[in-house]
Amino acid sequence: MKKYISAIVLLLLIVLAGSPYYVSMQVQSEYEKSITALNQYYTGQVTVTGTYNRGFFTSNATTEIKFTNSPEVLTLKHEIHNGPFIIDTSSGNISSYIPKGFKLAVVDTVIQSQNLDALIKNVYKDKSAYTITTNVNFNGSGDTTLINNPFTMNIGAGEINWKGMSLTIQHAKSFASFDSTLSIPQFSYMEMTADLAKKNEFRIVDVTAKYTAGSQVQVEKLDFSIASISITQGTISVFDADKIAIKGDYSRANKVINSDVVYSFDKLILATDEYGPMQLKAKLTNFDIDTFDTLTSKIAADHSITMTGTVNVHDVLNKLRSYLTPEQVATALSAMPYAEFDLALTTPKGKLNYTSNIVVGDKNLSSIDYDTVMATVVAKISFQIDQPLAYAILAQTAETSIANNEKLFAQQNQDPNLQNPYTLTPEQRQPIIENWIIRLLDKLKDSKVITEKDKVISSEWSYEKGVLTINSKIFSQQDLDALKPLFEIKLQPKVIMPAQPMAPATVNTQIPGTGTTAPSTAPQSGTTPITTTPAATPSQGIVAPQTPVNPNASITSGAEASEKQ
Questions:
Q1: Cis omega (within 30 of 0) on the bond before 84?
Q2: Pick from 223, 281, 291: which is nearest to 256 by CA?
């Protein structure tokens, strides 16, 4: 019996003694797989190469990362502690020989780069900048933790205070997915001055991010938050934001893309104006993957796209047709893509709530012409906005319109006899804008486009089977066309009358008290001669001085024009 026990113990000792060598071969195999996987994931962006020196208890490897569009080369030096029992003898005392864990391997990594090394030396001097530790499990999964140490550094007249960073990336077997957690406690920059009135500071606190990525390193789940961001100049707060968050889900499955993103913040202060809370939800489902990839690549390469402030459905469809083949359009619409937006915002002028959802397409779409596609659209839009906020938005819109029209008029009219009607002082613009807003809202209420109750303006729109309904009233294209002039501000130019030639100056030659006329003679020495200046004429390119324009005179707006009609 004792012989059997001795044989078993001996066999166990042999297995334990030889297991590190067996494990080291497995670790090398996993390392080489990871090199291959990285080159597949980042094809065209980076090239990854690696060399591996296998040891018994400890192995070493070197990974080089070369970027396609940069001469920079990152070199990663790995010290690999082979399992199954992880023993770290770096401290030199006997306790270090006690196994620290049961894993395939534990890897310590150091990054080397000419630029990075110079930066670390400049910032951290002789202190440690970071540690990178990777744990590899027997089932092929693992995790990597990067700890960046805190530092303070003087730059110019200020000081940077970095509280450090930690990043943990957990990966499944064969790098099928990644779960990552990022934490940045604080970053701040403060000008070092004794005068508080001149002290400037930027501070960001508690940045956290958790995300899950698929095998193509495509983010599938995201939970990002910032506790606060602040910018102060002296004793004045220029920018202050609290509890900023982004949460999202993204998937590419069954040949379609589905995404759901929520943006929010509790408070945002710009100078003296406070906004918030705010929440924006955006949802997109059933969007064909091939169509999405084609669109994003072509839109990114199209430098002719400009934001005009207005959206024309015909123009959008024509643009899409230029990007996609008819077959691609039909495929995308047969999936019946769906989009949804939901915004709730509080501003200094009041609240805004907006919701919309739209689905377009049909599984049996017969044609992709405009009328056929529009017949498949089902959309709903609703909004509620406090009256003061609506006035503020319309006033800003009017200011922008007048400024744009001023430039346009100057480009199109070179007649010196016409005064630019959009060149107005703030005092002249104010009554024009106020009257335009009042008439616009009154007309929209009369036509049932909007309703107002308790100083809240609201409207509900729906579109289905080619029929547009606004607040339960059906609107035709002609009805919408009739509303367009209401949104325009058109001012009539004033004609500048050319200066008339002045009559020649005359001298009263009557001799006082005599009733007779003295002969006209030239001025004598010591007297002031009488001179005249001929008036400028239009042919000379000079116009008479302009006097201030009465803002209510010779001015018509689009709303007035439609009212007259």
A1: yes
A2: 291
Tokens found for residue 562: 């439609």
Distance CA 172, CA 178 (A): 7
CB atoms within 10 A of CB 102: 11
User: Once rounded to an integer, what is the mean pLDDT over residues 423-450?
Assistant: 95
Extract the runs of DSSP E, i.e. beta strands, from 149-199: 151-155, 158-162, 165-171, 178-191
Q: What's the length of the chain?
A: 565
Gyration radius (Cα) of the chain, Å: 38
Sequence letter at residue 253: A
Give the pair of three-digit tokens for residue 542: 């000079």
Rounded Cα distance, 332 and 35, in Å? 36
Q: What is the C-alpha to C-alpha distance for residues 230 and 268, in angstroms, rounded to an integer?
A: 10
CA dihedral 26, 31, 35, 36 (to 10 degrees): 10
Q: How far apart are CA 283 and CA 66, in angstroms?
A: 38
Which residues on adjacent β-strands are paired with residue 263? 246, 280
In tens, the pLDDT along 184-207 reads 999 999 887 776 666 788 999 999
Position 553 scores a pLDDT of 34
Task: Read off the tokens for 192.
Answer: 């070092």
What's the per-residue H, E or C state across 498-509? CCCCCCCCCCCC
- Euclidean distance between CA atoms 497 and 519, whole angstroms: 38
Strands 456-464 and 451-453: antiparallel
CA distance 383 to 352: 7
Q: Per residue in 242-289, pLDDT tens?
A: 999 999 998 888 888 999 999 999 999 988 899 999 999 999 999 888
Please provide the average confidence, as pLDDT, over all residues in the chain: 79
Q: Do 520 and 505 meet the contact criterion of CB atoms below 8 Å apart?
A: no
CA angle 57, 62, 63 (to 5 degrees): 130
How would DSSP label each residue in 18-47?
Answer: HHHHHHHHHHHHHHHHHHHHHHHHTTTTEE
Q: Distance of CA 58 to CAs 69, 84, 260, 346, Å?
A: 35, 12, 46, 60
Q: Please give the backbone phi and psi of residue 379, each rounded to the nearest 5 degrees, phi first.
A: -140, 150
Instruction: Please give the C-alpha separations between residue 432 and each of 136, 394, 398, 484, 489, in angstroms, as whole numbers.
Output: 72, 12, 9, 18, 9
Q: Are 354 and 369 in contact (CB under 8 A)?
A: no
Structure tokens at 272: 């003296």
